[in-house]
Amino acid sequence: MKTKVLLYIAVSSSLLFGTTSCSDFLDEKNKTGETADITYATKSGIEGLISSCYAFQRGWYGKEPALGLTEGGTDLFYYGFDNKQKSMNSYNISSVSLDDNVNDNPCLDQYWEMGYAGIDVCNNALKYVAECSQIDDATKAKYKGEAEFLRALTYFNMVNMWGAIPYNDAPITAQNTNPIRMPENEVYGKILADLDNAITDLAAVTTKASGHATVWSARALKARVLLYAASWINGQLNKQVAGNDKYSNMDSKALYSAAATEADAVITGSGATLYSNYSDLWSMNNEDWTKNNEALFGVSYSNDLQSTVNCIPPRYGSNTEYNSLITRTGYTRGGSSMLLMFVPLWNNGCNDLGGNGTKNTCVFYRATDDGNTITSKKTGQNVAVAAAYSPYGRGFTRYLPSLHLWRILAKHQTTDQRYQGTMLDAYRIANHDLSQNAKNYTKMGAWADKNITDASKLQAFRDTAIYYSILDGDSQDGKVLQARAKNRYRIQFAIGGDIPVYTSTDESKALPTTGGKTVSDVYGDGRYNDPKIEGYRSFPCISKFLDNVYDKTYPTYDISYRDFFVLRLAEMYLIKAEGQLGSGGATDALTTINALRKARAISGQDNSLSSISSIDDILEERGVELCGEFQRWFDLKRTGKLVEYVKKYNAQGSANIDSHHLYRPIPDAETNSVTNLTTDENSTTGFWQNKGY
Question: pTM of the entire structure?
Answer without folding.
Answer: 0.94
